[in-house]
Amino acid sequence: EEIQEKVAMVEEIINDSLVSDEKNEQISSVGQGNAPQAVDTTILQLLIPIGKKFEAWLHTSESIQQLESELKNSKTLLDDSTATQQMVNTQILSLLDSMKKVERKSDTELSKLALFHVIEEMKSIDKKDYSTIIFEEFSKVLKTIQQVYKNPQASIDEVKNAIRQGEDALEEIKGSKREG
């Protein structure tokens, strides 16, 4: 996935950056006492829009919720005038980690989403616009594919077949609509 590639690339840059920041902090803290340090939030600011590119419908709700939580924490930290570089660095790593853990839904789950939309379209067909015999056949197909949709054990092939059946039934019934 393109977003995951960006995450990996940014992670590599961040790891290099954080290592050099730690060395610089150790060196600079020796001679400076308690002087306030400027906090660099650039990487965090760049990561937030990347995190927003994950599409919720394509990914598991648990992993998206975790990502959204880390995005919220990141925004809160950016607004925190007392944030330290260590806090920012820790949040960068947390946000990156949640991005890497975003899980894509299975093909079956995604196909069931498409099937849901076919079912909804079929439900919107008005019985009065069609002959009884045509609508009864259409209703049988609708009931069959609804059973596939409700079956948690349905295979990807069963779901794809149900989508095809529903689309074919929609095409047929729309072609047989009564005039006026």
Strand content: under 5%
Overall shape: it is elongated
The overall strand count is 0
Structural class: mainly alpha
Walk me through the structure.
With 180 residues, the chain is an all-alpha fold. Helix content is 72%, strand content 0%. Helix 1 (2-32) packs antiparallel against helix 4 and helix 5 (107-123) runs antiparallel to helix 6. It is elongated and about 80 Å long. Mean pLDDT is 87; it is low at 26-32.
Task: Give the gist of this structure.
With 180 residues, the chain is mainly α.
Write the layout of secondary structure elements.
Layout: H1 2-32, H2 42-51, H3 61-78, H4 85-100, H5 107-123, H6 132-150, H7 156-174
Helix pairs in contact: 1-2, 1-4, 2-3, 2-4, 3-4, 5-6, 5-7, 6-7
